[in-house]
Amino acid sequence: MTEETANANACCDENRSFSKAALFSLALALLMPTLGVSITNVALPELAARFHASVATVSWVVISYLASVTTFIIGAGVLGDIWGRKPLLLLGVGIFSFASLLCAISGNLWLLIAARLVQGFGAAFILSQTLALASVAFPKAKVGSAMGLLSTTAAIGTALGPVVGGGLLHVFGWQSIFWLLFVMGGVSFTVCALFIPNEQLKFSATVKQYDVIGTLLLGLSCLLYALSVTAHSTKLSVSGTVLFMLAIAVFTVFLISQRKRRFPLINLAFFQHKLRNLTLAANFLVDAVAMSTLVVGPYYLTYGLGLSVMEIGMLMAVGPVVAACSGYPSGKLVDLIGVKRVMLLGLLQLIVGVVCFAWLPVQFGVYGYIAALFILTPGRQLFLTSNHTFVMSSATNQEKGLASGILNLVKNLGLMTGASVMVAVFVSQLKNENIALATQQDLGAAFTSTFLLAGAVIGVSLISIYLFSANNAEFK
User: Fold this and answer.
1) pTM of the entire structure?
2) Rounded to 5 degrees, what angle do the CA atoms 428, 432, 435 make?
3) Residue 475 in 3-state DSSP?
4) Alpha-carbon distance 167 to 276, whole Å?
5) CA dihedral in degrees (307, 310, 311, 316; nearest 10)?
6) Measured between alpha carbons, how far is 320 from 205 in angstroms, rounded to an integer?
7) CA gap 85, 398 in Å, rounded
8) Residue 36 to residues 30, 88, 127, 201, 363: CA-CA distances in angstroms?
């Protein structure tokens, strides 16, 4: 072996280990905002008792975080494209960690809610930059694996949240939840600063004129939409319909402003890629259906099968655990056989899983519920991993942050929509408005029809993507 060959091999080994360290750093950073979503849910009853607040008021501890992420996610992604993704990731980790400290020392509920709002702002930077950095830091043949690992990390964070939060709450009290996130932030900041490579940005000076007005308009429209789909559970004085119409109006103004501005927040040419638009729409529907399993499922488990809270909690962890196990293999499969095959396979398996979810729990109870999740969840991971790979790979280097922001925005909107609309569909099919008084037969019929409808919606997405991609050489 020549000296040049040995040096080249050593360099390749160094780059390979560095890439693994960078990917681990991104995964650690991503773990925080995903934990931030689920770890506080278990503490809501304790917070209600501690601050003598109503359930509707305490729910803002969760809603403020989600609304903040949804509001700022696009702007955070675009800022990463302009000022550098690593600096913006570190900024996000710093803000998230500082906000966690504020949460831990909050003396009243409204300070806690305000701190959660700031925490969501930091989470928006983390979420928008992790996918963007992964898509540019690794060769195209390895992007699928990177996306799969990040998808697995997100699922692990969601699964661990209730377990870790419950344990900390039982032993140390609710403040310990936020102290944990604060410590994780410090560790993540150090690791990311050390192992994520610095970018050499060579963008033109024109993109540095950031569209503040566009950011405010888009953020306001997203916030109004988030409030509209959660209005029924938060007892707002304004109806959800009015808030939704206001969201549409503000979003229309945003689109007009983007067409007229010389340097818009979002270059609307990004949405001229019709196949990518279809996959984003499918992403919205898939996340809405996935969330519906988490919010409609417990109603049937409680009133239809008569399970205890502890039993329901254990069952609710099945989906995230299966997702965590199937995320990375999904990414490897994308690298092996291509985005198109995995995406179509994922949608097909998801349809089968949703149909099984509609039928098996009603026929076989808990065992049917678990079996359906073992079919449905890997299908969702196959789709999400391939979709994220396709969207990020089809974006130019100057659009990576924007693409990552849009993916996360679509996800959040889908989750909120699923939590609202699918519950409304389920309840609307019950003969008795009080779900606790509904018969087991009525509950089963409503549960089955709700998820058969969800399966039909995913089927439309599968057919649309298959037909539109038939002659698309880019989609392989």
Assistant:
1) 0.74
2) 80
3) coil
4) 42
5) 110
6) 43
7) 11
8) 10, 19, 12, 31, 36
Give the type of residue at 11. C
pLDDT at 336: 87
Angle in degrees, CA 340, 344, 348, rounded to 5: 170
Distance, in Å, from the CA atom of 91 to the CA atom of 129, rounded to the nearest integer, reads 11
CA-based nearest residue to 409, from 61, 65, 75, 60: 75
Instruction: For tokens 């998230």, name the residue.
Output: 96
Tell me 208's DSSP state. G
Kindly state the tokens that stand for 319: 């989906």
- 229 against 325, higher pLDDT: 325
Indicate the pLDDT class of residue 326, thresholds 50, 70 and 90. Answer: confident
CA gyration radius for the chain? 22
Cα 454 from Cα 284, distance rounded (Å): 12
391 contact partners, CB below 8 Å, separation of at least 6 = 276, 279, 280, 403, 406, 407
Beta carbons of 404 and 129 less than 8 angstroms apart:
yes
Tokens representing residue 218 in the block: 């888009």
Q: What is the 3-state secondary structure (H, E, C) of 255-298?
A: HHHHHHCCCCCCCHHHHHCHHHHHHHHHHHHHHHHHHHHHHHHH
User: What average pLDDT does this structure show over 9-25?
Assistant: 58
Question: In terms of C-beta density within 10 A (0-12 exposed, 13-18 middle, 19 or more buried), how is residue 21 classed?
Answer: middle
C-alpha–C-alpha distance, residues 267 and 230, integer Å = 30
Residues in CB range of 220: below 8 A, 6 or more apart:
71, 250
Q: Contact 450/425 with Cβ under 8 angstroms?
A: yes
Give the domains, in start order, of the chain with CATH numbers. 1-209 (1.20.1250.20), 211-264 (no CATH), 267-476 (1.20.1250.20)
- Can you read off the two tokens belonging to residue 367? 């065992």
Interatomic CA distance for residues 267 and 377, integer angstroms: 34
Cβ pair 407, 92 in contact under 8 A:
no
